[in-house]
Amino acid sequence: MSLIDALTRAHPALEVLPASAATAPYAYDAGTRRTPVEHGPVVAFPATAAEVAAVVRTAADLGVSVVPRGAGTGLSGGASAGADQLVVSTERLTRIVEISPADELAVVEPGVINADLNTALAPYGLFYAPDPASYAISTLGGNIATNAGGLRCAKYGVTRESVLALDVVLPDGALVHVGHRSIKGVTGLDLVSLFVGSEGVLGIVVGATLRLRPLPVARRTLTAFFDSTGEGARALGAITASRVRPAVVEFLDEPTLRDIDAHSGSDLRRRGASLALVELDGFGIDEQTAELITALTAAGGRVAVVPDGEAPLLWELRRSGRGLGQGAPTWYVGEDIAVPRSALPAVFDYFPVLEARYGVRVSAVAHAGDGNLHPLLKLPIPPGLEGTPAPPALGAAATDLVAFALSRGGTVSGEHGIGTVKLDWAALELDDRVQRLSHAIKDAVDPDDVLNPGKALPAPVLQPA
Amino acid sequence: MSLIDALTRAHPALEVLPASAATAPYAYDAGTRRTPVEHGPVVAFPATAAEVAAVVRTAADLGVSVVPRGAGTGLSGGASAGADQLVVSTERLTRIVEISPADELAVVEPGVINADLNTALAPYGLFYAPDPASYAISTLGGNIATNAGGLRCAKYGVTRESVLALDVVLPDGALVHVGHRSIKGVTGLDLVSLFVGSEGVLGIVVGATLRLRPLPVARRTLTAFFDSTGEGARALGAITASRVRPAVVEFLDEPTLRDIDAHSGSDLRRRGASLALVELDGFGIDEQTAELITALTAAGGRVAVVPDGEAPLLWELRRSGRGLGQGAPTWYVGEDIAVPRSALPAVFDYFPVLEARYGVRVSAVAHAGDGNLHPLLKLPIPPGLEGTPAPPALGAAATDLVAFALSRGGTVSGEHGIGTVKLDWAALELDDRVQRLSHAIKDAVDPDDVLNPGKALPAPVLQPA
């Protein structure tokens, strides 16, 4: 029996799209969209956790592998699907089941959009801290599957730190609950943390109990402009050396300021050659502001407090990206490396080395508070070569930069995940024994490789017998 | 060949104690000390990570199982060992390898005492946040193995939130590194979190990269006394409803205040029938103090700011415990349940129910900020019955209370772990499928059950074929 027949027979009420040109958008996510397909996979839209479980069981019985999918905003190909796979979309699981101010938690279905939860929480004076750049369009289930980061992580933690409990559909269709509604809890292995960030290879999140926080009593945005990228990158250490821990520290290098100005009409580059954009929050906002101004000024910054009315515009400039897709056509690779904070200046210093060695252009914004950078490596496409693959130099430069981050104790992915796109880089990071250990765990949880096969975990070199 | 012969032959420089009466203290930890043994296990004291790896390999080759041990301060039997097992002590692995203020991290060996790290960090203006009550005597390796909590967890997180990377000896003696020196990182499965809190059943931590924080710019201690335990427990919700998030909120009920007064000569009970002992820290300490005084006063508290000179004494009274072992001989059971904060009043209200039903005495202190309680259930021992087992009513009352916590969305262990002592209770919390999943992961990592067999994971009911 075909998959689509089996699904509609076993689950008459299930919304399901047959494999067709219409489901082609479900064949890729934002990380693999550049190589579109003609024909998409079968896509199921279960409306309840039990329906997810039943659909997975049906697929497993037929030997069809399952690709879990939230909003498809992932940047690493974690939600891309082959024509012979079943995509299980969580788009219909959009209920905010509970908001408990007394316990500072919310219980949600996985298809809830990150920003929608915060909209619902605002009247309670609460917020959900993890704020990936995609917060307006990405789902909480996807955020959990990738252990999504964001701007506020240095102070408030990544997604993992905000997940108390999960309802998970296992690869055989069993529905389990792990974790608890209490803040603390150490009973048994920490399966919540194991599922968070596992990119759908161990289970499908169908419910989550999320930790909330009180909205800060005050917020303040500061800018610190510097005369060069290097000076700014080195000045970031002054924040660590102070006693202030901002909610957000974004660092934008010189090419990034120029790019933003070019596509937004702003005048950032005129004000300096690099920018630390800082948000303070919480009690004692004036004390915090004074201490940070002292620290950054001593480090060479021209520091200003941004009037409250102007702050949203600056943050919007930062979040709106760097104008890719505008101007001359360009081959590009986006990275997501993270390094120990002290290594940030060395990373920016390495960009000119890469540019000289490979003929590419390199720039980056950094979530400087946690050492996470998003370097962008670009090569202009000569006239007539649009649509052709990038020259090997671009990929070589990207891999060179990844290796540099690893040599400084960093990681190939700070927050986007591995998916399919970063498998080769992940293999550079994880030693062979760790790769085999990870696959042993995957095999223990999913012996038939039903869930998201081939994603997230680089294939280990086989051990000689 | 005997284990001791194999160890001394393979590792001539290894410090090792043969099984004897002298090693009897290594047969139990602080959770199982009440049932001492005559004869202890073989104990090895490796001095390097490589030596730990080699010793584990030797034991595995001989089919001898290994019990990892830090300072033996655990309260759940996780480090207790049979006479046929090998105890691998980390007592010789006491180096603080690195302190990096720029990256806010320390690299340590597992035998470093928690308090010793903080002593070393103070000159840098940094601290390591997790502070189990045993911080003066427990090792960081043991803290990691149990995902230890403490008083400051509601604000600063439990041990897991402070572990960036681990060096781990696997059950076959392989030495692996997982995690990174960056704050963020999502490459592959979160093996760091899997090892943290796994109570030595998956690997032995031989090195750890720990996240540090700046010492707060200010600290302030407040007391809030209430006219009854119930009134105080209900008032705790006023803290959550405020925008202040204290570093510590300890709640002491009426019998606890009396016990402390009896063994310390203090006069807490005269000042009220329950006490919320609060530490605020960070910027805006006066604003925080004012908002919290308003909130707790409105909730019925008699709130006072404790003069700085007197605060350490109060915290010492809290940490020194409740005078167990003094006064009339008593059978007792100590618990470590955690519940959603809103359920704290219900738990305290349940104590009189238990007392009436089982004839026991019940009291508790609570890490109220994260809903973690340490109830103490006691039965006086009638003259002549010292040394005899407690009547079944005591255990029945303890299990009844655990079930109550679970019914409120809580957990049987907030921070002490399961070890051997709480296996039956863990089985009440974890559904059968989750137990089987946990064992499947244990089997994948440790197929020969070399490391700490029988601990931490309740044995699942066997699935019918």
Automatic annotation (TrEMBL), chains A, B:
Q: Which cofactor does it need?
A: FAD
UniProt superkingdom = Bacteria
Q: Which UniProt keywords apply?
A: FAD, Flavoprotein, Oxidoreductase
Q: Which SUPFAM superfamilies match?
A: FAD-binding/transporter-associated domain-like (SSF56176), FAD-linked oxidases, C-terminal domain (SSF55103)
Indicate the segments forming the FAD-binding PCMH-type domain, all copies. 36-215
Recorded hits in Gene3D superfamilies, A to Z, give: 3.30.465.10, 3.30.70.2740, Vanillyl-alcohol Oxidase, Chain A, domain 4 (1.10.45.10)
Against InterPro entries, the record matches this protein to:
FAD-bd_oxidored_4_C (IPR004113), FAD-bd_PCMH (IPR016166), FAD-bd_PCMH-like_sf (IPR036318), FAD-bd_PCMH_sub2 (IPR016169), FAD-linked_Oxase-like_C (IPR016164), FAD-linked_OxidoTrans_Type4 (IPR051914), Oxid_FAD_bind_N (IPR006094), Vanillyl_alc_oxidase_C-sub2 (IPR016171)
For this UniProt entry, the molecular function terms from Gene Ontology, in alphabetical order, are: FAD binding; oxidoreductase activity
What's the name of the protein? FAD-binding protein
Q: Species name for this entry?
A: Miniimonas arenae
